[in-house]
Every structure is written in structure tokens, then in C-alpha cells.
Amino acid sequence: MNCKKLLVAVACIVMGMALQAQTGVVTIHQNATLDSLLYQEKNKETITLAEKTISATGYRVQIYSSNASRKAKEQAFQWKTDLEEAYPEHHVYVQYQAPFWKVRIGDFTHYAEAVVWSNALKKAYPNEANEIMVVKEKQVKPIYLPEEAVTDSIATSETDLLQLY
């Protein structure tokens, strides 16, 4: 019986030691460039053009959409090249939304502008008239902010930024 009591006592002591909180030192090794990115202090000289702009909801004209597995990507970039040559004043975008490759053109803030442009494209590309449509986009036509908006104080939302105008 004493043997059992001794084994139970030893087991309790061992378990108690295992459950005690252990102390130690944790060393983190990280790249110095990560520190500079995380703790970089921004001033007016480091603010980029992208930080001085916001994008508004708008419309684009979709001229191509296909999920043909082998040809769709190649055709999408061919459309992009052709449209950029024909209409250099408009931006052309190639998007991949699985499984579709899509080509869209323009940055229109008003639906009517996009409809007029889509009708012009339907006349220019009559074989593709059934594919050409106006689509709503979340980010089109960057709005450049005045210098006062890009200061030490940060606006909390796009509506705060738009109120600066």
C-alpha cells in the first residue's frame, strides 16, 4: 500500500511541475525592410499620386467575354491591343473572373455616356453587337484630391473626401 501512495505522490509532483507556467525569452527575427514599411513616418514628400486620388462608381462597356479555355485569354488580349490602337483616348481593361475572360473599355461616370459609347461600338463592330453591353464598375475615373485633403489628418471615408470639393 505504501508503494501505491508513493507512486501517486510522485505522479502528482511530476504533473504539478509540468503544469507550472514556464518562463523564457522569445526572439523575433524579421527583415529590416519590413520594419521600415511598418513604421515608416509619412510626410508630404512621400505621398504618392495614388494616395491623392479616389475612384468613383461608374460604367464601362464590355465588348468581349468568353470562357473558351484555350483561346479566351489570347483573344482578350488581342481585343485589348486592337481597341487601344483604335481608341487611344479610352482605357481598355482585361479581366479574368473565373472562368470568363472579359474586355471592357472606358471610364464613364454616367450611364448615358456609356450607352452612347456602346452604340458607337456596336456600329463599329456589328458582328459583336450582341456581346456589347454596359456594365457597372466599382472603381472608374480617378478623382484627384486638392492638396488640403492630403495632410496629417486622414479622412474617414470616401464621403468625407468628397465633401472637400
Strand order of the largest sheet: 2-3-1-4
CATH overall fold name of the domain at 56-144: Alpha-Beta Plaits
| CATH homologous group name of the domain at 56-144 | Sporulation related repeat
What's the CATH architecture of the domain at 56-144? Answer: 2-Layer Sandwich
Total DSSP helices: 5
Core attributes:
single chain, 165 residues, alpha+beta, Alpha-Beta Plaits, 4-stranded antiparallel sheet, 4 strands, elongated
Detailed description of the structure:
With 165 residues, this protein is of the alpha+beta class. It has a domain of 89 residues: Alpha-Beta Plaits. Helices cover 36% and strands 25% of the residues. A 4-stranded antiparallel beta sheet has the order 2-3-1-4. A hairpin with a 2-residue loop joins strand 2 and strand 3. The protein is elongated and about 100 Å long. 15% of the residues are buried. About 5% of the residues have low confidence.
Describe the structure concisely for a colleague.
With 165 residues, the protein is an alpha+beta fold.
Topology summary:
Blueprint lengths: L1 H18 L12 H7 L14 E14 L5 H15 L5 E6 L2 E9 L2 H14 L8 E12 L13 H5 L3
Antiparallel strand pairs: 1-3, 1-4, 2-3
